[in-house]
Inverse folding.
C-alpha cells in the first residue's frame, strides 16, 4: 500500500480485500427445445428468402419462404407465452431499455453492417481497387470501431448508457452522408473521412447496445437480454446485406449511383435514433435543459449551478454511474417504479453485502407500482437468505403491512403479533405495524401498539430522537380519533411538532367534516395533510438516492493519501476535508437542493471499484463515480442530522456541538 503505482499485481489484492465472494447459482431449468427449433426454422426461412430475393423479389419461392417465416415466428411467440421456461421472456419487451437495445441491434445490422459489408465489393468493381487496398481502406472503419469499443467504458458515469446509441447512430449518419458522390468521382480520399467518423459510431454501438441489453433486464435474465440483442443484430445484418445489394444493383445509374442511394438510406437511421432521446428519463418523456450537477451531469436550475461551480469535483457525486440509477432530483410522481425496482434488484445481485438496503427499496417500488406479490417475494428473499440482517423486524413489519393490502390479513396479523412480542428497539417496525392497524380501522390495537412502543423507547429520554417522532405523532392522531383525553405522551408529541397548525387541530376528526363540501380545495388539502403522516417510512424507501458527498474517516484518508500521493492535492488535511464537506452541503442546501447525504469511503472498497473500472485509484476523476456508486447501493446517510444526534464526522459529539454549530434549519 506504500506505492503510488497501480500495476497488474496490485489489482487482485485491491479487489480481494474486504470483498465477499459468492458462489455461482446453478440453474436446473429445462431447455426450451421446441421454442429453439421453431425459432431456428423461422430464421432459416427468413435468411433463405432474403438470399433468394437478390435474384428477384416477386418469385414464388421467396414469398413462400417469407410466409413460412411469419407463421413460424407467430408460432414461436405463442409457444413462448405458454411455456414455463421460455427461451426468451416476451414480457421483457415491455421494458423500454430492452426493447430499445433489441431494435437498436436490428437497425445496426440493417443500416451499418449491411452497407459496410457491401462497400468493399463496390470499391473493387467501380474504382478497380485491389483486394489488399480495399482491405486496408476498410480497416480504417473496422479498426477504429474496435478501438472505440474498447475505450467506451470511459464513458461510464459521463454519458448515460441509454443516450450512447443515439450518439453512435448520429455519428454513423454523419460519416455516411459525406460519402455519396465519391464513387462517381473516382476518389478514395472523399471516402476516408466518412469511414473514420462512421467507425467511431460503429464502435460506440458495439459497446453500448449489449450493455443496455444487460442493464435493462433482471440479473437472472442477463444472458437472455444479450442473446436477444445479438440475434436481432445478425438478422438485421442478413437483411441489410440483401436489401443493400437489391437497391444498389437495381438503380438505372449503375452500381455507383445505386450505392449512393444505399448510403443515403443508411444515414436516415438518424431519424430513428432521435427516439432515443425520450428514453433518457424513466417516464419516457424528453428531459429538459438543466444545470450542471458535479462535473458532468445536469439537474436543477441556475441557483444550483452557481452553487456547484464552486465545489471541488471530487466531493460532489454526479448522477450517472455504472448502475444507471434514478436521478436524485426525480419527483416522486415521475418515477418509473417497475424499472427502478428492477435496477435495485440487479444492484443487489452485484453487491450482496448491500442487499438488505437495496431490496427494501426495491420492494417499496414494487408496492407503489401495485406489484404486491412481487414485493412479498423480495421480503421473503431477505428473510430466507440466511444472512444476518441489520433490521429483520423492519423487514417482517413491511411484509405484514404489504400482505394485509392484498387480502392476507391472517398472516399479516400473525407477523404483527410476533413483532410486538419481540419488542424491537428500532422505532421503524413499530411505526409500520401500528400504521397498518390504523389503516384498516383497528384503532384500539393501533393505539396499544403506539403506546407500547413509546413506553419502551422513550421512557426516561429527555429529547426524543427524530426516528421516534412518527410514534408520538401517530399515537396522538389515533387518540384524537378515539376521543381520548390528553396525556403526558401527547404533550411530548406537541413539543416535537413543528407545523404552524397544532396537533389537536390537525388531528381533530371533526375538522375534516366541518369543512363540508362548500370548499373542496380546503377539504382536499386537509386530507392530504393527514395522509402525509402515514406511510412516511415506505415513501422514504422509494425516494431517489441523495446527492452524495464523499467522506473519508481519518484512518482511511491517511491510508489513501499514503498509498496514492496524487490524491493529496484533493485532501490537504483531515480537518480541511471535514470543513469542506460541511460547507459544500450547506451551500447546496442554501441553493434549494433537496435530498442531500454523505457516503463513507474505505480504501479497499475504492481500490476494488477502481479495479472494476480498469482505472488507477490515483485518478481523482474516479472519486465522483465511486461516491455515486456508494449512494446507489444505499450507503448514503441523510444530511443534516438532528442537533442532538451524533455528528456525521464520527467524532462522537452531538452534531449541534460539532459541525452543526449554526447548522441550517431542517
Amino acid at each position: 500500500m506504500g506505492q503510488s503505482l497501480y500495476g497488474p499485481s496490485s489489482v487482485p489484492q485491491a479487489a480481494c480485500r474486504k470483498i465477499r465472494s459468492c458462489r455461482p447459482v446453478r440453474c436446473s431449468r429445462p431447455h426450451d427445445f421446441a421454442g429453439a427449433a421453431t425459432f431456428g426454422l423461422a430464421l432459416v426461412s427468413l435468411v433463405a428468402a432474403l438470399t433468394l430475393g437478390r435474384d428477384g423479389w416477386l418469385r414464388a419461392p421467396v414469398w413462400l419462404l417469407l410466409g413460412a417465416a411469419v407463421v413460424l415466428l407467430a408460432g414461436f411467440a405463442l409457444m413462448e407465452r405458454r411455456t414455463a421456461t421460455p427461451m426468451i421472456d416476451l414480457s421483457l419487451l415491455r421494458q423500454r431499455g430492452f426493447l430499445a437495445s433489441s431494435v437498436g441491434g436490428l437497425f445496426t445490422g440493417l443500416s451499418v453492417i449491411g452497407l459496410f459489408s457491401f462497400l468493399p465489393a463496390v470499391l473493387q468493381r467501380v474504382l478497380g481497387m485491389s483486394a489488399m487496398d480495399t482491405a486496408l481502406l476498410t480497416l480504417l472503419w473496422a479498426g477504429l470501431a474496435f478501438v472505440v469499443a474498447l475505450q467506451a467504458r470511459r464513458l461510464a458515469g459521463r454519458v448515460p448508457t441509454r443516450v450512447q446509441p443515439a450518439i453512435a447512430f448520429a455519428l454513423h449518419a454523419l460519416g455516411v452522408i459525406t460519402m455519396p458522390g465519391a464513387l462517381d468521382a473516382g476518389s478514395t480520399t472523399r471516402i476516408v473521412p466518412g469511414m473514420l467518423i462512421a467507425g467511431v459510431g460503429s464502435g460506440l454501438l458495439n459497446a453500448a447496445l449489449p450493455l443496455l441489453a444487460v442493464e435493462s433486464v433482471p440479473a437472472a435474465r442477463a444472458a437472455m437480454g444479450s442473446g436477444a440483442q445479438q440475434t436481432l443484430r445478425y438478422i438485421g445484418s442478413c437483411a441489410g446485406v440483401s436489401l443493400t445489394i437489391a437497391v444498389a444493383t437495381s438503380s438505372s445509374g449503375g452500381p455507383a449511383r445505386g450505392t449512393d442511394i444505399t448510403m443515403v438510406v443508411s444515414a436516415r437511421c438518424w431519424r430513428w435514433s432521435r427516439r432515443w432521446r425520450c428514453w433518457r428519463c424513466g417516464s419516457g418523456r424528453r428531459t429538459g435543459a438543466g444545470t450542471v450537477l458535479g462535473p458532468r451531469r445536469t439537474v436543477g436550475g441556475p441557483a444550483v449551478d452557481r452553487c456547484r461551480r464552486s465545489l471541488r469535483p471530487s466531493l460532489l457525486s454526479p448522477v450517472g454511474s455504472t448502475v444507471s440509477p434514478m436521478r436524485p432530483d426525480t419527483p416522486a410522481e415521475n418515477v418509473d417504479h417497475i424499472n427502478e425496482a428492477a435496477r435495485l434488484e440487479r444492484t443487489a445481485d452485484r453487491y450482496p453485502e448491500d442487499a438488505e438496503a437495496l431490496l427494501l427499496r426495491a420492494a417499496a417500488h414494487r408496492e407503489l407500482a401495485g406489484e404486491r406479490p412481487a414485493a412479498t417475494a423480495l421480503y421473503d428473499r431477505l428473510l430466507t437468505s440466511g444472512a444476518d440482517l441489520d433490521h429483520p423486524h423492519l423487514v417482517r413489519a413491511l411484509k405484514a403491512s404489504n400482505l394485509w393490502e392484498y387480502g392476507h390479513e391472517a398472516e399479516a396479523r400473525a407477523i404483527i403479533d410476533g413483532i410486538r412480542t419481540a419488542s424491537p428497539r428500532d422505532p421503524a417496525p413499530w411505526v409500520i405495524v401500528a400504521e397498518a392497524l390504523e389503516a384498516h380501522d383497528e384503532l384500539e390495537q393501533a393505539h396499544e401498539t403506539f403506546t407500547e412502543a413509546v413506553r419502551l423507547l422513550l421512557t426516561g429520554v429527555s429529547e426524543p430522537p427524530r426516528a421516534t417522532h412518527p410514534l408520538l405523532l401517530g399515537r396522538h392522531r389515533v387518540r384524537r380519533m378515539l376521543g381520548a383525553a390528553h396525556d403526558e405522551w401527547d404533550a411530548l408529541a406537541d413539543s416535537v411538532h413543528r407545523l404552524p397548525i397544532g396537533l389537536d387541530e390537525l388531528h381533530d376528526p371533526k375538522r375534516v367534516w366541518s369543512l363540508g363540501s362548500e370548499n373542496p380545495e380546503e377539504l382536499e388539502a386537509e386530507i392530504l395533510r393527514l395522509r402525509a403522516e402515514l406511510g412516511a417510512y415506505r415513501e422514504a424507501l422509494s425516494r431517489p438516492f441523495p446527492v452524495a458527498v464523499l467522506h473519508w474517516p481519518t484512518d482511511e484518508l491517511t491510508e489513501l493519501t499514503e498509498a496514492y500521493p496524487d490524491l493529496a492535492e484533493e485532501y490537504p488535511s483531515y480537518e480541511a476535508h471535514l470543513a469542506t464537506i460541511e460547507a459544500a452541503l450547506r451551500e447546496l442546501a442554501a441553493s434549494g437542493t433537496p435530498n442531500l447525504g454523505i457516503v463513507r469511503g474505505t480504501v479497499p472498497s475504492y481500490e476494488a471499484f477502481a479495479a472494476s473500472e480498469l482505472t488507477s485509484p490515483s485518478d481523482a476523476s474516479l472519486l465522483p463515480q465511486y461516491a455515486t456508486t456508494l449512494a446507489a447501493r444505499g450507503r448514503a446517510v441523510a444530511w443534516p442530522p438532528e442537533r442532538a444526534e451524533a455528528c456525521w464526522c464520527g467524532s462522537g459529539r452531538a452534531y449541534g456541538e460539532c459541525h452543526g454549530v449554526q447548522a441550517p434549519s431542517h
Notes: The radius of gyration is 30 Å. The CA atoms of residues 323 and 370 lie 24 Å apart.
